[in-house]
Amino acid sequence: MNHPMYATSVPVFKQMLNSLQAILNKAEEHANTKNIGAHVFLQASLFPDMFPLLRQVQIAADFAKGVCARLADVPVPEYEDTETSFADLRARLTKTLEFINGLSPAQFEGSETREIVLRPGTPKERKMLGQAYLVSYGLPQFFFHVTTAYAILRHHGVELGKRDFMGEY
Question: For residue 108, which of 3, 76, 126, 157 is within the disulfide window of CB 3.0 to 4.6 Å?
Answer without folding.
Answer: 3
